[in-house]
Amino acid sequence: MSNVVVVGLGYVGLPLAVRAAEVGHNVTGVDLDNRKIEAIQERTSYIEDVTDTQLQTVLDSGNFTASRAMPGVFDIAIIAVPTPMKGHSGEPDLSYVESAGQMIAAVLARGATVVLESTTYPGTTENLLAPLLEEGSGLIPSEDFHLGFSPERIDPGPTGNTLQNTPKLVSATTPEGLQIIKDFYDTIVDETVPVSTPATAEMTKLFENIQANTLIALSNEVAQICHDLGIDFYEMIDAAMTKGHSMSRWTPGPGVGGHCLPIDPLYLAWYTRSHLGRPFKFAELADEVNNSRPDYVVQRAAAMLNDQQKAVNGSKILILGTAYKPNVGDVRESPALPIVKGLQERGAQVTVTDPHVDHWDLSDFMTIEEFPSYLKAFDLVILVTDHDAFDYDKIAEAAPTILDCRNRLQPNDKVVML
Ligand code: SAJ
């Protein structure tokens, strides 16, 4: 077993660190966020996919410790830090990768291995991280230390897709490095898939999310056409799926949230414009279509109120679910945010309820225990995120009128499908 450092203890890094410790590696988790380190020292998991028991077990085994600083020695260092965009510039923000690389370079020893897991544009590992490690350590990449890229494929929430059962791409700048990286990941996942270069692995990861984001945008646009033509999109997509092959089922929604699907395609869109001098049209079009969905929800809500001779201004609207997808508590890039803001800008009194979200300060918040009995007090209910915890029978029975953005309820005279 190895001395492993995981830099970045978020939804990727903490499950990875815990899993590596579970199989016997000696793992140090490093994060600059004191709250994360304190939570771990208090033996409490802040990541839904890691239970308190799992965390406590590896802490008690002595195989896992958390720290704000790098340990003095390590065999493998894995970077699992965020790769967001710089505001609305459309430009990637690799500052977290750079600072993680600098931390690692300061203690990088000959013969060690560095793996980047954070999603990024092709060439980052070899053209940005390698020189940064060399500058900080004086060691030569591929000669004095091994370097590779292994994209994270975490699927947050109780989806059944786990770190262990999701095949893991592995890549490196040398055959020796690839063998070392493959051997490591073979101890923690069921299947590793070697690819020829880090850039191939970087592009593969982006393509996975670009394909999803684009097909969701396609379904979003076709769903609007179906609505205008009086065609049930879901009957249509289910009929299309009977073809049995070469079809995949992506459903329309109120918009695409999370810190992956809406962001990753823009990494490649930025790269093609800045390095190849041409746009990545599918990424830009999908972004435009998906980003138009929250306003479409607001428009449809206004039309439903109008049908009741009510204005949005002054109406009481309840939003069910603010997280970016069902059964998680993450609101990053959630479409609920622009939907709430759009309704408030039109004068609506908006209340939200979400059993998974701990912090919400954009509007009034109602606990799930309160909300069924108060449903009748609202002029309109909008189902934005269809958590399993909601009692859909009660909602259908008690709500005045519902705009269902997730096809979770049976359409009737009160329930309108987005
Ligand atoms: N969504 C739709 N329609 C769909 C599927 C999803 O509107 O048919 C929306 C969801 O409501 C959500 C957003 O898209 O707002 C993203 O949800 P998701 O579950 O599709 O994706 P994430 O962000 O939770 O995880 C994705 C996954 N990638 C793909 O599905 C290709 C996961 O496998 C990746 O590991 C993860 O990104 C990541 O970290 O890159």
Give structural notes.
The structure is a single chain. With 418 residues, the protein is of the alpha/beta class. It is built from 14 helices and 14 strands. The chain has helices spanning 13-22, 34-41, 52-61, 95-105, 124-137, 175-186, 198-229, 233-241, 264-276, 281-291, 293-307, 336-345, 371-374, 392-398, and strands at 3-7, 26-30, 64-67, 76-79, 113-116, 146-149, 168-172, 192-194, 316-320, 349-353, 364-365, 380-383, 402-404, 415-417. It has an eight-stranded mixed β-sheet with strand order 3-2-1-4-5-6-7-8, with helices on both faces. The protein has a six-stranded parallel β-sheet with strand order 11-10-9-12-13-14, covered by helices on one side. Helix 12 links the parallel strand 9 (316-320) and strand 10. Helix 4 packs parallel to helix 5, helix 9 runs antiparallel to helix 10 (281-291) and helix 11 (293-307) packs across helix 12 (336-345). The longest helix is centred in the middle third of the chain and has 32 residues, at 198-229. The protein is globular, with a radius of gyration of 23 Å. The mean pLDDT is 96. The structure holds ligand SAJ. The site of ligand SAJ has 20 residues, from helix 7.
Attribute tags:
six-stranded parallel sheet, eight-stranded mixed sheet, globular, single chain, binds ligand SAJ, 14 helices, 418 residues
Task: Walk me through the topology.
Blueprint: E1 3-7, H1 13-22, E2 26-30, H2 34-41, H3 52-61, E3 64-67, E4 76-79, H4 95-105, E5 113-116, H5 124-137, E6 146-149, E7 168-172, H6 175-186, E8 192-194, H7 198-229, H8 233-241, H9 264-276, H10 281-291, H11 293-307, E9 316-320, H12 336-345, E10 349-353, E11 364-365, H13 371-374, E12 380-383, H14 392-398, E13 402-404, E14 415-417
Parallel strand pairs: 1-2, 1-4, 2-3, 4-5, 5-6, 7-8, 9-10, 9-12, 10-11, 12-13, 13-14
Antiparallel strand pairs: 6-7
Helix pairs in contact: 4-5, 7-9, 7-10, 9-10, 11-12
The chain binds ligand SAJ.
